[in-house]
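hey
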C-alpha cells in the first residue's frame, strides 16, 4: 500500500513538472495579446474631439453603418439631454407618423421620422408614440470625425 501511494505521488509530481515545463514555452509577450500591437498595460487615450456644431435643421442624414442599422444623429444633442420619459425633446422634430415611408427630397432641414416600430396602434388605428422607446441615445448616437483607437475593417 505504501509503495502504491509513493508511486502515485511520484507520478503526480512528474505530471506537474512536465506541465510546468511546457507552460513556460507557451508564454506570449504582452504586446501580442490584443488587436492593438501595444502592451495590454498601456491605457490608450482618445484624442479630444468636438461634435460638429451643425444645427438640427441644417443637418443632412448620415449613411447607415450597415443595412438595418439605426440612423446616426448628425447634430449635437447637448441641449436635449437628459432624455427622460416625460422630457424627450427629440419627439418635437422626429415624431411625425405621417412622414413614415415618404421621400424627404434632399433630406436637408427635414427630420427623419421615427419608424413605425417606435409607435403603437391606438384603438382608432392611428399611431401613438410608444413609451417604451423614449431613450433615443440607446440606439441612435451623435457622430463626430474621430480617429479609431483600434482599426476596424467591418463591412457588410
Amino acid at each position: 500500500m505504501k509503495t502504491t501511494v509513493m508511486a502515485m505521488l511520484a507520478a503526480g509530481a512528474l505530471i506537474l513538472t512536465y506541465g510546468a515545463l511546457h507552460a513556460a514555452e507557451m508564454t506570449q509577450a504582452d504586446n501580442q495579446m490584443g488587436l492593438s500591437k501595444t502592451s495590454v498595460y498601456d491605457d490608450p487615450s482618445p484624442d479630444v474631439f468636438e461634435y460638429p456644431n451643425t444645427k438640427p435643421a441644417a443637418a443632412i442624414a448620415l449613411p447607415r453603418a450597415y443595412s438595418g442599422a439605426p440612423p446616426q444623429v448628425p447634430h449635437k444633442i447637448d441641449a436635449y439631454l437628459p432624455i427622460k420619459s416625460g422630457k424627450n425633446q427629440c419627439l418635437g422634430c422626429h415624431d411625425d407618423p405621417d412622414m413614415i415611408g415618404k421621400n424627404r427630397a434632399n433630406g436637408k432641414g427635414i427630420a427623419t421620422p421615427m419608424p413605425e416600430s417606435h409607435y403603437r396602434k391606438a384603438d382608432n388605428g392611428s399611431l401613438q408614440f410608444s413609451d417604451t422607446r423614449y431613450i433615443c441615445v440607446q440606439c441612435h448616437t451623435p457622430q463626430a470625425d474621430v480617429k479609431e483607437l483600434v482599426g476596424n475593417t467591418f463591412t457588410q
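The first helix runs from residue 2 to 25. The chain is about 20% helix and 5% strand.
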